[in-house]
Structures are given as structure tokens and as C-alpha cells.
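Archive transcription. Copying these from loose printouts into the bound notebook so they stop getting lost. Printout 1 of 2:
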Amino acid sequence: MQALLPGLLIPFLGTAAGSACVLFMKKTLGRNVQRALTGFASGVMVAASIWSLLVPAIDQSAGMGKFAFLPAAVGFALGIAFLLLLDTVIPHLHLNAERSEGPKSRLARTTMMVLAVTLHNIPEGMAVGVVYAGMLTGSADITAGGALALALGIAIQNFPEGAIISMPLHAEGTSKGKAFLYGALSGAVEPVGTVLTVLAASRIVPAMPYLLSFAAGAMLYVVVEELIPEMSEGEHSNVGVVTFAVGFLLMMALDVALG
């Protein structure tokens, strides 16, 4: 359990630290700042999906020869389908959107904004959980450094996410204290998802390649469905692309250097 603590605490602390920006900043985030932060988070998540999840999944299936891609492909498709299902059945409201998604609901606008970020955080908790399960069981050739790299990468991209949820909540009339609390709580699903995934993965070790790629599919669904549209909407700007590249390179470097 002690070895799992970094995976539980580090990503959540990233979200909480970002949410705390609302306590110290008077203005809402500018549009270009939001684009930059969203682009950065996208880059981190794409790199984590590839280097920390899909590549280990394929490597673990190397004994299948030319079909080594198959478990990764199946798990990836299931991860996409799982997030598509959640996106359909959970009412939520994306940043800067006027209309909510999912089934019709009488939930408050602020509640649906928190649900959108919570939905976003589910695959991140799963990703950390399955990587730590692979490390703890020794079944996926994942080192403690590699697992820590993923936890740090998720925490880094959680920082702007926390700010992006707490500050708009305050701008819409929520008190600073409640905006911070809601922003921080949106990340609480990550440690819960991490623990549940570790418990499940440790009991079905042969399924590890499927679980790794499942988490990758779920994360990339969030990037394509939510983050990239948010960083690209409105008048043309390259800031999101630039910060995407920075986030990708940072996460790639962390994974290679620590893994």
C-alpha cells in the first residue's frame, strides 16, 4: 500500500493546487490562457497514453508475434466505448458551452460543470491505477520510476484543470471557498479510480495489456472529444498547439527519464 501512495496523492494534489488559484487570483482566466492550459493538458495526456500505456501493452504481448497489437487494439476500443457510454448517460456541461450534454437534467449549471471535469478525471485515475498494478504485480515490466512518471505527468496536467474549473465557477457567482472545494473534489475521483483499478487489475493479471490500453483509449477519448475542441474554438490561435507540444515533450521526457 505504501508503494501506491504517490499514485494516490500526487495527481490529487495537482488538482487541489490548481483549484487554489481561485483563492489568490482576482480575475478569470483569459481565453488564450485557457487555450494554453488546455493544450498543455492535452499534450501530457496523449504522451502518457502512448508511452506509459499503449507501448507497455504491446510490449507485454510480444509473445503473440505479429498479432502483438491485438490486445492493445481491443482494450483501446473498449476504453473509447466506455467513455462514450459515460458521456451519454451522465449530464455534464463543458467549459464555455451553453448547452449541457447527456440526458436532460435539472442540475445546477455549476454542478454539471463539476461533473464534466469529474468525467474527465475517471480515465486518469484508471491509468494511474493500472500502471501501479502492473508495477506491484511485476506483470507489465513497469518500474517504480515509470509509475511515478505517470503520476507526476497527470498531476502536472491536473494543475491547469483545477484552475480551469474553480475560476469559472467563482466567475459565475460561487464563493471562492466553494469554488476551490468543488474544483478539488472534482479530482477526488482519481484516487478512488486508482484504488479500484489496482484491486481489479491485481486479480486478473493476464488482462494487463487490455487494461493498459483500455485506460489509453479512455484518456484519448477525453482529449479528442473535449480538450482539443476547447483549445481550438473561437478565432484562430496557435497557442494551444504550442503548449500541446510542450506538454507532450515533457511527459515523454518524464516517462523515458524515470522509466
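Printout 2 of 2:
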Amino acid sequence: MTLRLPPGAVVSEKELSLRLDIGRTPIREALQRLARERLVTILPRRGIVVSEVNVKSQLRLLEVRRELERLISRSAARRASTAERKRFRRIAHDFQRSAQANDDVAFMRTDREFNSLQSAAMRNEFAAGAMALMHGLSRRFWYIHYKQAADMPLTAKLHADIASAIADRDEARAAVATDRLLDVIEKFTRDSLNTDV
């Protein structure tokens, strides 16, 4: 996600085991998961290649993500418990703070917590599983391009709008706020074509 292993890099289990100072079995298991999430490609007897980042693929991913995110936001607004709604309110506040401070690290931390809470609150393991795959790919794309093309404060505010709508149990507002966020993410993706990485 954070490009310590850049797209196109070739690595091996042995190299990663030495680099991370852990056994090869957990490395192998992690690589299998990353392969399922399309973050690496395993080439038998040749190594592991960190997947390239492709704008056209990202735009296709966003087509699916838009529909799924809308479902997740509406479902979370409908099904979240009282305790989860309180957490959504706090998360909305944290997003607003990260926007005001233009703090990308705080934003990413809050975004991860938000995604996890949304997945739990929606009470649909199938949508949550599909979204987990897309979040990893989207997060990596964002990390590569956000300094050149993203408006992080705006993105944080739009996330805060979704969290607030869910906290207020307002399904329609959650869906509209999700569409607004995905519009900005799609524009960011298209704008990244014009940046040098």
C-alpha cells in the first residue's frame, strides 16, 4: 500500500523473510492473500511481482465500488447499533479534524477505522468481503497519486458526511453522500493521468 515495494518490483519469499525477520510460512500465507487481493502476482519458480497500478483498471473498479459503497452506506445507516452510531459520530469528527489540519496520516487512519466499522455495521459479510478487496486496491492507488492530484481535505469532509448520515440513521443522505465521494474519487483517478509519479 505504501510503496515500500513499488509496482513492478520482483520479490521472493526468502527475500521477504529476511527483510521482515519472520518465517517463510507466514510470508507465504500473506503472499497468497495479497495475490487474492490482486496486489501481487505469483509466478511459479520465477518470483512474486508487485502488481502494476493502472488507471483504466482503477476506473473499472470504481464502477463496481460505487454501487457497493452505496449499498454499504445505506445498510449501515439502517442496521448500525447505538454504540456503532456513536463511533460513526466520533469518526465524522476525526475526519473533520484531519481535513482542517490537512493531515493525510490522520485521514488514512480514520478512513481504515471507518471502512471497518461500516463493514461491521452493515451486517452483510458478502458485501464486506467484496469491499475489502476494493479498498486495498483503491488505497494503494490513492497513496501513489494523492500528493499530485487529490484534495485530501475535501475527501475527508465527504467521508465525514457519510459517517454523519449513518450516525443519524439517514439512508438516503448516506447514499447521496457516498455518490458525492465517489464522484470526487473518480475525478481524482482521471486527474492522476496528468501527474508524474
